[in-house]
Amino acid sequence: xxxxxxxxxxxxxxxxxxxxxxxxxxxxxxxxxxxxxxxxxxxxxxxxxxxxxxxxxxxxxxxxxxxxxxxxxxxxxxxxxxxxxxxxxxxxxxxxxxxxxxxxxxxxxxxxxxxxxxxxxxxxxxxxxxxxxxxxxxxxxxxxxxxxxxxxxxxxxxxxxxxxxxxxxxxxxxxxxxxxxxxxxxxxxxxxxxxxxxxxxxxxxxxxxxxxxxxxxxxxxxxxxxxxxxxxxxxxxxxxxxxxxxxxxxxxxxxxxxxxxxxxxxxxxxxxxxxxxxxxxxxxxxx
Length: 287
Fold this sequence. Notes:
The chain is α/β, with parallel strands linked by helices. It contains 9 helices and 14 strands. It has helices at residues 24-37, 53-56, 80-92, 108-111, 121-134, 144-149, 156-172, 174-177, 268-275, and strands at residues 13-17, 43-47, 62-67, 97-103, 138-142, 187-189, 194-201, 204-211, 217-222, 228-233, 237-241, 244-249, 254-260, 285-286. Helix 3 (80-92) links the parallel strand 3 and strand 4. The radius of gyration is 20 Å and the shape is globular. The two termini are 20 Å apart.
């Protein structure tokens, strides 16, 4: 710890990888010891069982949780990310920074080539935004070295380019994801296969809608007032009829829209860059 605590690339001390709750005392002592030696960096725990979250919440500064469904569950049911991340966030109760740990690896690295099914860009995008909708304030991608281990199945450069593309997308919206501004009231027409989250950053409102299924889905909202609306990203389309917005979602689609009273030509990059100093909570973590 003394050797590396002042290294400029150090983000956190990773003290626990899926250790069960019976190690509570050991992990608590580990965090307290690290705090004494290095008060400037937090500790991180990553769990895989929601039942251990409450028992281990006092052992770490940051709570992470992993879910790796692509190529493991039948038909790649990536909606399990929403379930496990939501359950974890509910147990953390905003008492800890929560970081979803998202799959970028191919299960063939661990279970043989017959499990070959690396997540594509859209699957990684879906899992990541499921994590943010569930309450995540950052993201961890697992893992870089596995992309090399399965290069004989899918070339590293192709997989890495997808990771960079997704990272750029998340970074573009970092100030929005971390915003704590009070959002405008809206009405939603519920679809159990769709999850959404709303943010407000300065005068602009943002809504992300995530299709949890591998089939087309429709989701609708009522903004309760007249706004200028534009689509930020997503495979599907949106239809505006007065105050009503309908999202026509493609399989495992993620659509973000921005709506505001002011019709400006400034893009999101300009808005977030110009206002970064006005938001003190702008340290999104992507590992």
